[in-house]
Amino acid sequence: MLTRFQTTLHAVLSLLATLVMVLSGVALVVLITTFGWLVFGRYALNQTPTWVEQLALLLIVFITFTASAVGVRDRTHLAVDLLFEYVSRPTRRVILTVVHLLLAGFGLLMAVHSTTLMTFAWGTEIPLLGVSEGLRVLPMVIGGILTTAFALGNIVDDWVAQTTVSASAGHDSDAVSLPRSAAAETEDDLPDAVAAVTSPLPSPQAQA
């Protein structure tokens, strides 16, 4: 059976990814609404709301850096996986681990250096909005932290899943329960052993 730590970690990261996507969706709705108000004010009221552009920049930065971190969790970013066709599954797992470690390192560097930049800019105000300039950089800090957390979570998912499949060989299929991210829904992303132990057994009627 999966360890309690891995199961809890998977649930927490999945919930966090869902929350981030909901917030990004709300930010996108606000962005579209404010731009609609910008067009209406400029051409119908002849009074352009000048604050819309600055708010739009804030929202775009938030959506970009947070949603891209969720892409790491769901493994939906563009990737060239030609090499995977010519290596064994254990080798694929090692390659994926290296990739996620690089992503985690990148996210950590982005969070650290963005924090320095945010601290430097916090005392300056954004024109027309009257809020701190550091808010422009805050989504980069959040995105870096999320990228690191999601990349490390994927490593845990991959290796614990492999360990569970190996330990469950020869046992009943009900003993295996593998939480998987959205990008691991295809059978190619799982070892052959997982497909074997998780497939439903034929009914007696079908065998007859």
TrEMBL record:
Keywords: Cell inner membrane, Cell membrane, Membrane, Transmembrane, Transmembrane helix, Transport. It is found in: Cell inner membrane. One of its GO terms (biological process) is C4-dicarboxylate transport. The chain crosses the membrane at residues 12-39, 51-73, 94-117, 137-156. Residues 36-159 form the Tripartite ATP-independent periplasmic transporters DctQ component domain. InterPro entries: DctQ (IPR055348), TRAP_DctQ (IPR007387). One of its GO terms (molecular function) is transmembrane transporter activity. Pfam families: DctQ. It comes from the Bacteria. One of its GO terms (cellular component) is plasma membrane. It is a multi-pass membrane protein. Part of the tripartite ATP-independent periplasmic (TRAP) transport system. Belongs to the TRAP transporter small permease family. The complex comprises the extracytoplasmic solute receptor protein and the two transmembrane proteins. This is TRAP transporter small permease protein. It comes from Novispirillum itersonii (Aquaspirillum itersonii).
